[in-house]
Write a sequence for this structure.
């Protein structure tokens, strides 16, 4: 029973990182997701002055990398973890005070952003935790600009089923599942980038007019 509780504790912190477990889980994710972060940076095609949304920014690793790539951009980051918001507010206080970064405690199924706010939206390994994917895709469509792109980084069901920590709280998808749910919700897939064969992909989408 003790082992089960530990596994569940770690799984919960992948979904909603808090406390010591949150610090550890986000560090683990930074290590595990290196190739996925690189795929975002290589394919997001940042232009000067772009406004970018990072869904589920965790400890802000990708936010730092995006600003390093182009410091003319503005970034918004949303999280469901109050603890990550608190830590990011302190870590990125200069960027926040300069108006370059806005972070908020929000769920992607309903946000406070105006219509067509973002040029680019990205998320790394959060779709497993979306309680209502249809609402989340609808919200992304609402807040992204008509010429914007959405990068959805995923591990496949086949890979996650081999990992003990995805046993609790993860909704797992095959690549075909992701393709179907994306197209069903009115987004056109521009490209599917294979990061690790059969295991990890970057699905690049845009709005279908």
């Amino acid at each position: 029973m003790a082992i089960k509780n530990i596994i569940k504790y770690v799984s919960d912190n992948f979904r909603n990182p808090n406390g010591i477990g949150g610090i550890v889980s986000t560090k683990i994710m930074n290590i595990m997701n290196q190739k996925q972060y690189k795929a975002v940076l290589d394919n997001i095609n940042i232009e000067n002055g772009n406004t970018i949304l990072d869904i589920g920014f965790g400890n802000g690793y990708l936010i730092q990398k995006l600003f390093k790539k182009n410091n003319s951009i503005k970034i918004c980051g949303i999280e469901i973890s109050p603890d990550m918001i608190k830590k990011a507010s302190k870590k990125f206080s200069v960027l926040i005070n300069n108006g370059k970064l806005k972070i908020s405690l929000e769920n992607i199924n309903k946000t406070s952003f105006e219509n067509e706010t973002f040029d680019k939206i990205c998320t790394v390994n959060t779709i497993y935790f979306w309680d209502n994917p249809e609402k989340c895709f609808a919200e992304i469509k609402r807040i992204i600009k008509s010429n914007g792109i959405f990068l959805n980084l995923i591990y496949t069901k086949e890979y996650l089923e081999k990992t003990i920590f995805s046993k609790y709280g993860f909704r797992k998808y095959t690549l075909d599942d992701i393709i179907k749910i994306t197209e069903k919700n009115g987004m056109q897939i521009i490209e599917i980038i294979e990061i690790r064969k059969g295991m990890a992909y970057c699905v690049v989408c845009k709005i279908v007019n």
In short: The radius of gyration is 16 Å.
